[in-house]
Amino acid sequence: MTQQPTTKVGFFGALSEFRKWAVLILLALVLFFGYKFFTTKSETSSIEYDTNLIQQQIKNVGKLVVTEGHFAEVLTYKDKKETYIPGLSFDKKALVVINADVTVGFDLSKVKYDIDAKNKTVTIVTIPEEEIKISPDIKYYNTESSTFNEFTGDDYNKINKLARENLKKKIDKSTLKSNAKNRLISELSKILILTNSMGWTLKYEGEIVNSDKEFGTQLKN
User: Fold this and answer.
1) Helix H or strand E encompassing 12
2) Does residue 154 contact residue 145 with C-beta atoms inside 8 Å?
3) Are 117 and 51 in contact (CB under 8 A)?
């Protein structure tokens, strides 16, 4: 009869000790997972951060890249109005001097791109065509005309059109377009530098871009 109380005390004592250790273990787990939760960045957060950073960089690049040039040209404009009398005509002519400021640029705000966050890939889908602006200053010298064939607005429009056509030919033969393309490559290479530094991949026309030189070759083709 004297051993029964001793058995109950031992049982409840062991149960109390178990609860104490259980609480301690549970508390330790809560602290551990809480620490991991607040100190470990999730992959999703990292990808979102990278994506936002890349989008911001592309917006920063998105501006008008312009290369400027100056061209000069001299041409002689002639027009003859024939009559029914052989050898009789009414002529007009003018010496035309053209000085033109020309800009060739790319509006990079129109660059279309796709960001694949899952595969960490940025694809440049389209790059806008170059924009050529010609601002000619046309002066007329030694203008000669007759009463029956005077200078009119149509003549000046013809001269303006002819001047622009000749200037475009000169621009095509000059280095203005290639210089503008080089500036374009320089600006877009900023995206390449960013993607490489973040462990992402840049693609253009289905090909992976690994260097500035490679990018330039792809753009010039």
Assistant:
1) helix 4-39
2) no
3) yes
In angstroms, the CA 56 to CA 115 distance is 12
What are the b/e assignments for 32-47, b being 16+ CB within 10 Å?
eeeeeeeeeeeeeeee
Q: Give which of 34, 36, 52 is closest to 44, Cα–Cα.
A: 52
For 27-53, the pLDDT digits (tens) are 766 666 665 555 555 556 677 878 888
The one-letter code for the residue type at 73 is E
| The two structure tokens encoding residue 183 | 């500036």
Distance CA(113)–CA(128), nearest Å, equals: 12
C-alpha separations of 150 from 57, 59, 213 in Å: 59, 55, 57
Residue pLDDT, tens place only, 141-153 = 887 776 667 878 8
CA diameter of the chain: 156
Q: Which helix (H) or strand (E) holds 61?
A: helix 43-61
Euclidean distance between CA atoms 146 and 84, whole angstroms:
17
Would you state the structure tokens that stand for residue 15, as one six-digit string? 């149960």
Q: What is the CA radius of gyration of the chain?
A: 39
